[in-house]
Specification:
4 domains, Alpha-Beta Plaits, five-stranded antiparallel sheet, Uridine Diphospho-n-acetylenolpyruvylglucosamine Reductase, domain 2, single chain, binds flavin-adenine dinucleotide, Uridine Diphospho-n-acetylenolpyruvylglucosamine Reductase, domain 3, seven-stranded antiparallel sheet, alpha+beta
């Protein structure tokens, strides 16, 4: 392999001035994402390494040039969007090229009549949403990180946002894709609303974490800007009461645009639900009316409307703080608490098993000396989260929490669920991918070998 300098020179010849960087602090900054070393992931220090060079392509052709060179010289490439991924999907684990797509940030076309938008991969979600709003449309994907995360990054993690129960996850928004494959070919998948012409190839790249190709552009669905929105907040005496209310709403076919439910874990049994509906006026009124009855029937007590409004208007605040601290160059290794090891779990389960899972986790976690800071549901009754911590940051504390997290993830798999529904796999969950997919992991590995025989695209991710 060439030295850093030689590689930067070779890339510089293919691209224009200002597109190739190999100075500090750029290399360290782009060598990692938002997987904080303070989580209970013991392999972080041994895996994380510095990239050789950071490249900022401005066109699909630039990406082709970089991939072609990387293939010839067997240099790993890590695609990089907003760098907000929480699983280390954009973490450099083998010295190579970080392909920062932030300068591929053009919205190529908005088709109001078709309710679609085509954008380059580096477009930030908020920018796309604002552009759509000028045409009376919205983007159906609204994660906390809407002001930072990119089209390419959110497709590649199949990210989920606040309005997921109504509009789906990011993968559900994708109609067409342009992808540079690992050998440098450009694949264009036609943007059609529905098709029955064989397996939909876009699903190889939705949640693909840059392992099978680099997304350079995407055509996405857009939705009518809602005529009306209704927001409510409730408290429930215990987690189960609110769970049954949410489940009952889904059982009669309500489609809330906001379901954010949680308690204070071990500290307080009462739980709070933020609930919202949006759409055309009559629809919102009908859904809202029925939902209020259901919540009251399940011992929900309504909080002042201002509480719900405040939740909605500040829903991206954590991500805004994260972005501000990162641009100020702050150390984000322990952005939850410096004296604690912490982690979180987001599993998907059949609705009928959620409460039993919660009970089994509580006993199991207490046996491991782990404190539950929050039990929660997001978007739908099947999507269950826990925020966990353990006092101390010594190796033994981190090992104890890591073992507890693995145990609850495996329990979700054993109870007919999935170990993760929102943040992807990256390096953080790679060790459980064989258990998650069974024979399916061999199929994924065979596809990877066929498309990327030199194994240059994002090595070490997705357990491939
Ligand atoms: C405070 C905070 C709040 C968060 N809230 C949410 C939330 O509400 N919902 C949610 O889903 N997630 C959330 N996340 C996680 C994160 O925002 C998502 O995973 C998001 O989808 C990552 O987008 P990104 O552009 O930052 O991608 P990155 O982190 O840059 O990359 C993610 C993965 O995609 C790959 N990739 C990036 N661009 C491309 C491309 N063009 N082609 C191929 N592969 C590519 C990377 O290699 C990596 O594997 C949160 C993170 C933080 C820090």
């Amino acid at each position: 392999m060439r030295s850093e300098d030689q590689l930067a020179k070779a890339l510089g010849k293919l691209l224009r001035p200002g597109q190739v960087h190999h100075e500090e602090p750029t290399l360290s900054r782009y060598g990692r994402d938002a997987l904080a070393p303070g989580r209970s992931f013991l392999a972080y220090q041994e895996l994380a390494t510095r990239p050789l060079v950071v490249v900022r392509p401005r066109s699909t052709e630039d990406v082709v040039q970089v991939v072609t060179l990387a293939n010839r010289e067997r240099i790993p490439i890590v695609p990089y969007g907003g760098g907000t991924g929480l699983m280390g999907g954009a973490l450099t684990v083998q010295p190579g090229i970080v392909l920062d797509l932030s300068e591929m940030n053009r919205i190529l076309e908005i088709q109001p009549g078709d309710r679609t938008a085509t954008a380059q991969a580096g477009v930030v979600l908020k920018d796309l949403d604002l552009a759509l709003q000028e045409h009376g449309l919205i983007l159906g994907h609204d994660p906390w990180t809407v002001p930072i995360a990119t089209v390419g990054g959110t497709i590649s993690t199949n990210s989920l946002g606040y309005r997921g129960a109504r509009y789906g996850s990011m993968g559900d928004q994708v109609l067409g894709l342009e992808v540079v494959l690992p050998m440098g070919d450009v694949l264009r998948l036609r943007p059609v609303p529905r098709s029955s012409t064989g397996p939909l190839l876009r699903h190889l790249f939705i949640g693909g974490e840059g392992v099978f190709g680099i997304i350079t552009a995407a055509t996405l669905r857009a939705f009518p800007k809602p005529e009306a929105r209704a927001l409510h907040a409730f408290t429930f005496p215990d987690f189960a009461a609110g769970f049954h209310a949410i489940d009952a709403m889904f059982h009669i076919g309500l489609t809330p645009a906001l379901v954010d439910y949680g308690d204070e874990g071990d500290d307080d049994p009462t739980a709070t639900l933020y609930l919202g509906f949006e759409g055309f006026r009559e629809e919102v009124a009908a859904q809202e009316g029925r939902a209020l009855l259901v919540c009251r029937d399940h011992r929900g007590q309504e909080l002042p409307e201002a509480v719900a409004q405040e939740f909605w208007t500040t829903r991206h605040a954590i991500a805004e703080r994260f972005a501000a601290r990162r641009s100020a160059g702050e150390d984000l290794s322990h952005w939850v608490g410096a004296e604690e090891t912490w982690d979180y779990v987001h599993v998907a389960l059949p609705a009928s098993r959620v409460l039993a899972y919660r009970d089994r986790c509580r006993d199991l976690l207490h046996r491991h000396g782990v404190r539950v800071r929050e039990y929660g549901l997001w978007n739908q009754p099947e999507l269950f989260s826990m925020s966990l911590s353990r006092r101390g940051t010594a190796q033994e504390d981190r090992a104890a929490l890591a073992a507890a997290v693995d145990a609850v993830l495996m329990l979700a798999q054993d109870m007919a669920g999935s170990m993760e529904y929102v943040h992807g796999v990256g390096v953080r969950l790679a060790h459980l991918m064989e258990r998650e997919h069974g024979q399916g992991i061999d199929v994924l590995r065979a596809i990877k070998r066929a498309l990327d025989p030199n194994h240059i695209l994002n090595p070490g991710k997705l357990g491939l």
